[in-house]
Write a structure and sequence with these properties.
The complex is a heterodimer of chains A (106) and B (514). Chain A is mostly beta strands. Chain A is built from one helix and ten strands; from the N terminus they run ββαββββββββ. In chain A, 4% of the residues lie in helices and 48% in strands. Chain B has three domains: 217 residues, Alpha-Beta Complex (2-enoyl-CoA Hydratase, Chain A, domain 1), CATH 3.90.226.10; 192 residues, Alpha-Beta Complex (2-enoyl-CoA Hydratase, Chain A, domain 1); 34 residues, no CATH class. Classes of the chains: A mainly beta (106), B alpha/beta (514).
Chain lengths: 106, 514
């Protein structure tokens, strides 16, 4: 087992000598979701932006219309707060996981 | 018209159709290093054994000027033949005819051979090479796929179903192979995906080649959709023929037993497994050390390598092997390896193949990604499939058997018929380090030298529990055996369980955590 990809894996405080899979090595570290960052959950086109920077929004208020998969998706705020920054423009084609806007929570 | 004139006419008609899509289309097929559908069938079945059905089928499309077009055999060849002398039903899509696209009559040819295979209880082999639905035929084409999926499902567990992907297989078409027992792919030829690169580019803006999206390697390594990977068509057909020697023709028969043969002398079971439970080795060598001719036919070799599955023979009788692989990810159970083992166990159970399990695992893989990917429900599939299986279940504990992993890997508690353990077996709730840290936490923390105390306590636990004798004292293990006795014990168990009869509670079917 002198392979260059031989690694170590800790299971219940015991360290095992073993090869590590590509999937394991490529996994993304987890980070908690930030409710103030509104991120696209699906790729698509920004059809309309319904709020302005500095504007106060309520929880559940529509922020952006994202056209994706032949549907108009209304992106809603999950918190109450004030729009800090809008990072996309009307007509932008965006991928999944793109930051759309930031909200300062109340 | 005299009879010999009519015979001439028949020969002429056949000659036309046998050309398929014509010479130009055949040239194109060859340029892609692909054989024609007819060449594939010839390469697969025993010489001169193929009997073709429905050569004269014609399509029935009227729209888009389709009525002016003639499509040889409507783009698919179906019939029955033999492989290794056993009957099989075969269909092969002909890419040279309208891109092998699936129209109504094309699908009816396939479903006819599927019905035939099911009625005659013979294996079905489908060779897929098709551009997809014949769009000109609209909903009739979709109906055709649905009829195929229905038959794949009702035939599941009755006859072995084999899919061979020798070209594109995209969109809805992928679901027929996905429903079958074994999927064969060939490097640079097989392409499987639900939505292709063009759609992905339009919708997501991501550019990817067909090969990187759904090539043979992707499905063998990443998705687990394919069971056998070959570098060319010839190797692929050899794999299919070999697989068929191990499995029965239907669920009422057993696999054909052959003459018993001794393993090669070069694998010594005593010298493969290191004593230190944290060190790796190749569990396939342990399998090779005990099976006939040391011939282990591995399935899904590249996917979830921490779990090894495949067929081999014990005293001439086919057995399905399930083994943790310590040299890959320490042999842990995780989402992918659970899925891989569970479906294989269910195949063995459906087709009367005894299951032999080699256990050596530290437990389940920790991680947010695993928990969020549903390791609970995927892991449960292993438990379900072992519990449900009524074929002989024989388990050998080679080394580590910790915690939930011990229970899941064919333990006595899931109704294993024989449980053997090597003297190196460690059957415990967890490894000595983890256990000592919990049980002796206070003592370790309050000690003047915590590290020294920890070391002592780990050793104390190791001596007391890291062995097979506690489990043996409760009858959870039938016999503690020397590694060198393993083959003899397995041969005994295979013979002893040959008449195993289990009456299951009457029910329509269970509800496994798919």
């Amino acid at each position: 087992m002198e392979d260059k990809d031989t690694g170590r894996l800790n299971i219940d405080s015991t360290i095992y000598t073993t090869r590590l899979s590509r999937k394991f090595l490529g996994r993304k570290p987890w980070s908690p979701a930030d409710p103030g960052s509104v991120v696209s959950y699906i790729p698509g086109t920004v059809l309309d932006i319904l709020v302005k920077e500095g504007q106060a929004v309520k929880k559940g208020e529509d922020l952006i219309i994202l056209e994706a998969m032949k549907m108009q998706n209304f992106i809603k705020s999950v918190i109450a707060g004030r729009i800090k920054k809008i990072t996309v423009e009307k007509g932008d084609r965006i991928g999944k996981g793109t930051l759309l806007l930031e909200i300062d929570p109340d | 018209m005299a009879l010999n004139r009519k015979i001439e006419e028949l020969r002429e008609k056949k000659k036309q159709i046998l050309l398929g899509g014509g010479e130009k289309a055949i040239e194109k097929q060859k340029a892609m290093v692909k054989r024609t559908a007819r060449e594939r069938i010839s390469a697969l079945v025993d010489k001169d054994s193929f009997m073709e059905f429905d050569l004269f089928i014609e399509h029935d499309a009227r729209d888009f000027d389709m009525d002016k077009k003639s499509l040889a055999g409507d783009g698919v060849i179906v019939g029955s033949g033999t492989i290794n002398g056993s009957p099989v039903a075969v269909y092969a899509q002909d890419f040279t005819v309208a891109g092998g696209s699936l129209g109504m009559m094309h699908s009816r040819k396939i479903t006819k051979i599927m019905d035939y295979a099911l009625k005659m209880r013979m294996p079905l082999i489908g060779i897929n090479d098709s551009g997809g639905a014949r769009i000109q035929e609209g909903v009739n084409s979709l109906a055709g796929y649905g009829e195929i999926f229905f038959r794949n499902t009702i035939s599941s567990g009755v006859i072995p179903q084999i899919s061979v992907i020798l070209g594109p297989c995209a969109g809805g078409a992928v679901y027929s192979p996905a429903l079958t027992d074994f999927v064969f792919v060939v490097d640079n030829i097989s392409k499987m995906f639900i939505t292709g690169p063009e759609v992905i580019k339009t919708v997501l803006g991501e550019e990817i080649s067909m090969e990187d999206l759904g090539g043979a390697r992707v499905h063998s390594e990443l998705t687990g959709n394919a069971h056998f990977f070959a570098s060319d068509e010839e190797e692929c057909f050899a794999q299919i023929k070999k697989l068929l020697t191990f499995i029965p023709r239907n669920n009422r028969n057993g696999a054909i037993a052959v003459e018993a043969r001794e393993p090669d002398g070069k694998f010594d079971p005593e010298k493969i497994v290191p004593d230190d439970p944290t060190l790796p080795y190749d569990v396939r060598d342990v399998i090779r050390a005990v099976v006939d001719k040391s011939d282990f036919f591995e399935i899904m070799e590249m996917y979830a390598r921490n779990m090894v599955i495949g067929f081999a023979r014990l005293g001439g009788v086919t057995a399905g092997f399930v083994a943790n692989q310590p040299q890959e990810m320490a042999g842990v159970l995780d989402v992918d390896s659970s899925d891989k083992a569970a479906r294989f166990i269910r195949f063995c159970d459906a087709f009367n193949i005894p299951i032999v399990t080699f256990m050596d695992l530290p437990g389940y893989l920790p991680g947010v990604d695993q928990e969020h990917a549903g390791v609970i429900r995927h892991g449960a599939k292993v438990l379900y499939s072992y519990c449900e299986a009524t074929v002989p279940k024989i388990t050998v504990i080679l080394r580590k058997a910790y915690g939930g992993g011990y229970i899941a890997m064919g333990s006595r508690h899931l109704r294993a018929d024989f449980v053997f353990a090597w003297p190196s077996a460690e059957i415990a709730v967890m490894g000595p380090e983890g256990a000592a840290n919990i049980i002796f936490r206070k003592e370790i923390m309050s000690s003047d030298d915590p590290e020294e105390t920890r070391g002592k306590k780990v050793e104390e636990y190791r001596k007391k529990f890291a062995n097979p004798y506690v489990a043996a004292s409760r009858g959870y293990i039938d016999a503690v055996i020397e590694p060198g006795e393993t083959r003899a014990c397995l041969l005994h168990a295979i013979k002893a369980t040959a008449g195993k009869t289990v009456k299951m509670i009457d029910k329509k079917h269970g509800n496994p955590p798919f």
